[in-house]
Amino acid sequence: MYTDARLVIADQPSTSKLDVVTVVPSNLSAEPSLIDKSSQHIVLVRPAGVSSKGTWNIPFTPPIGLAYLAGMIREDGFRVSIVDSMGEAPKQFLTEGNYIYQGLTIDECVDLIAPDATVIGVTCMFTQEWLYARALIRAIRRRFPHVLLIAGGEHITGCTDYSLRDCPELDLCVRGEGEETLREIARCLGDIERARKLPGVAWIDRDLPDQPYRQAPPRARIRAIDDLPWPAWDLVPVETFVTSDNAYGVNRGRTLAALATRGCPYKCTFCSNPLMYGNLWQARNPEKLIEEIEEFIRRYQIQNFDFYDLTMVLKKEWILDFCRLVRERNLKITWQLPAGTRSEVIDDEIAAALYESGARNITYAPESGSVETLAKIKKRVNLTRLLVSIKSAVRNKLRVKCSLIIGFPHENRTSVFQTMLFAWKSAWVGVDAVECMVFTPYPGSELFDELRAEGRVPELNDDYIRSMAAFLDPFVPSHYCKHISGYELMAWRWAIMLSFFAVSFTIRPWRFARLVMSLFNRNPETVVENRLSAMLRRPKAKQAQVVEVAEPVS
Predict the structure, then answer these.
(1) What is the mean pLDDT of the chain?
(2) Is the distance from CB of 180 to CB of 140 less than 8 angstroms?
(3) I need a labelling partner for 154 at 20 to 30 A (CA). Which of 63, 238, 330, 395 fits?
């Protein structure tokens, strides 16, 4: 039986060109039984969700990263708790300036942190969330002046030096995959000097006059992913996520997040994954994955799983084995791949297996219809084969969405029009929805570093953080394309999406009728139907001062 699938292109994330400290790897793992864990309480915090006012809808997603971290810490014998601002107040929307925040206020979040916390970790996955996360970290430091305060996530990994200097309240940052690093930080019992000897951490040496940035060697990727504890969903208000009608994928009943694989073997220049995870792609043992699914079906009566994988459908034998096991165990579930995925491997055999095992929605990520653009951004996609794969998915009754990006630095009107043509072809072959975004350089990506070197991306500051909203907000211009203005790109973005649906509804008019009906019966079949339905039912945001403008805590 096929039980594993590992493709190793590179073992570790690349190191920064900044000052890298050579340290002796910690041996804290050698004798964990000698550590007094009873005195330690690790609290993991997720800030409120952040979006701009023009973003039409942001999915309400459970904190799967923190749930994995908590599972690891708890299995090691430490007390751990999670404060999930979104999960605690999912219907509270606050507006300030051009931002909308979903979840607890900063004071409400801090009030839920256990007073006996000894280590507090704050996650910040997306750069546009940083201003809120920074304000939250400062509030935590005021309330807990002596705890070990750390941060992690993709933004932290991509902007480690900036984050530490912009928020001096932080003691340490965790770079890349966090489970093993956080476990060893917990074993340091709050001793920051011991924690600095761990691979995967970074800090500012504030004892020196010039306060240099220090970065320990990167931690190797976790290889024994089947040995990781399951996500500690019992530590978050899981019922609010399970019953939400605004999950990451399409609302198909009681829904929970899952991961079948980790990492991505590709090196797209607009993506921060190579820095966050390197290029190691690993698939879990499908039988162990099925065991987890069965347990959460039993525990939470789950009907649908959203897989958050970057690249789940990569190895044909693995995905066929997984689908076979779902059928053999007679699991009465649906499941989805709402994240953009490299899915050219899908043919009629795989598409049929996917549908028979309960798969209903899948997202392809061609990114561009321009062959030149695909080469420049290192997106190894053959558009002809991709369309053939999409036809197989549609023929086997899968609902398909495509993700597109326009406005890369080199692009001109010809390349953007080629993307529009690809959107029309997608509509012709049966794709249900297209999402078009405008390129914004993301910290940690290759294109971000290139544009910084050219002087086209300014020094990181609050204004740049706010500009990150352009990626998701169709009303905010992006100014990183040399040949097309930001406002013209906004027009192209709208033209691509509207013309796609015009073609789609002309060829298949029943889809428009289904869209209208879904707004009333709350029974969506596609991501667009789901997002529109959730947006119409979203509570009105209340005006409030959310992010306090304050000086750093001394």
Answers:
(1) 89
(2) no
(3) 238
